[in-house]
Amino acid sequence: MARAPDILIVTTDFIEGRPARQHMGMVSAQAILGANVVLDLMAAIRDFFGGRSKGYERVLARAREDALAALAKEAEAMGANAVLGVDLDYHAIGPNGQMLMVAVNGSAVVI
Predict the structure, then answer these.
(1) Cβ distance 28 to 103 under 8 Å?
(2) Exposure of 90 in the CB half-sphere (CA atoms within 13 A)
(3) DSSP track, 50-90
(4) CA pair distance 99, 63, nearest whole angstrom
(5) Closest Cα partner for 4 from 60, 78, 105, 58?
(6) How many Cβ atoms sit within 10 Å of the Cβ of residue 103?
(7) What structural domains does the chain harbor?
(8) pLDDT tens digits for 25-83?
(9) Pairing with 80, which of 24, 50, 60, 68 sits 20 to 30 Å away (CA)?
C-alpha cells in the first residue's frame, strides 16, 4: 500500500510557515503483520550471538509503511492535506507475541 503523495505526515505539532487553517479531527491506523518460524529461529540465533535481526527490521518497516499509508488515506478521505503530531507505537501481540503491530495517530488538518 503506497502513501498518498499529497498528504504531508509529520511528528511535529506544527509546520513552520504553514499554519493549520482547519482541523479535521483525529486519524488513526494500525498494521499487524505476523512473523514466521524462520524469522523467529533467526532472531533466536541473533539473540544468542548478538547482532541485528534484518528479517524483523524488514517486517517492522513494512508494518510502519502500511500503517502510515492507511493514516494518509483516512486523512485524505476527511479532506485533509496533512497530518500533524503523528505518534508511532510498536507492540508485539498475540498469544506468544508472534505478531507485530504498528499503531499511528495524529491530527488531520488543512494547511
Answers:
(1) yes
(2) 10
(3) ----HHHHHHHHHHHHHHHHHHHHHHHHTT-SEEEEEEEEE
(4) 11
(5) 78
(6) 17
(7) 8-110 (3.30.110.70)
(8) 999 999 988 765 444 544 555 554 556 666 677 878 889 999 999 999 999 999 999 99
(9) 60
Q: Which three cell numbers stand for residue 19?
A: 499554519
Task: Determine the pLDDT at residue 13.
Answer: 95
Numbers of helices and strands, H then E, in the chain: 2, 4
Q: Residues of 52-83 as b/e, b for ≥16 C-beta within 10 angstroms?
A: ebebbeebbeebbebbbbbbbbbbbeeebbbb
The reported pTM is 0.79
Bridge partners, 43 (sequence order): none
For the chain, the 3-state helix, strand and coil shares in percent, each to the nearest 5, are 35, 35, 30
**What is the reported pLDDT for 49?**
56
Specify the amino acid at residue 71.
Answer: L
Rounded Cα–Cα distance for residues 25 and 37 (Å)? 40
Across residues 94-102, what is the average pLDDT?
A: 81
